[in-house]
Amino acid sequence: MIQDISAVVIWCLALCLLPDLKRRKDQSILVAAITIATALTLNVDRIYIAGDQLLGNRNLLDLIANIFMVVGIYFLSRAILRAADPDETMDRQNRGGLVLLGVVVVALILSFSVVDAPRTSTSFMKDFGSQWAAAAYSSIQFLYIGAVVTITGYTCFKFRGEMARPYFRLALTFIGIGCSLAVVLVLAVLGMDVLHLMGEIESMMRLS
Questions:
Q1: 11, 45, 136, 197: least CB-packed within 10 angstroms?
Q2: How confident is the model at residue 168 (pLDDT cuts 50, 70, 90)?
């Protein structure tokens, strides 16, 4: 249910952004909304099961959803960084960021390709996370997300005091707090990956 609501909310955000499409020079926030909404939609159980059956019951939709998610996180971060610090160095950083994103996507594909996941699972890491390849697959994704949101949160806290309008300062504060909580989530997921590999299932479930 939470997944359904999240997907609907982000799709509504994407629709709200469409009327200003031609007036905006940077479409990062729209790309972020569409890709993140797609990732969340693909993870809705009934959609995932039906879609994965069409793709041969190999959990390819999990890989596709995770690729959409890291792409969405990249563009979301880019939009926030541009708003917080519209500096000329952003274009150079974006090129480096795109290269890193490409490396992460390739690493996700390679690690997923060696995971033994012979049946459709709506709880991919719970069912297959005892494998080194699956732990690497999860860790690559969340290490990337953790790095991106850490930089984004730091930038928000750094520049919020320079915003002329109070609601901009408040917005950057909330985004910074959200990024901090996302880092906590990343650490928890990495901890669960390690505990699963060690066979500490009870501890993993408590952390979850």
A1: 45
A2: confident
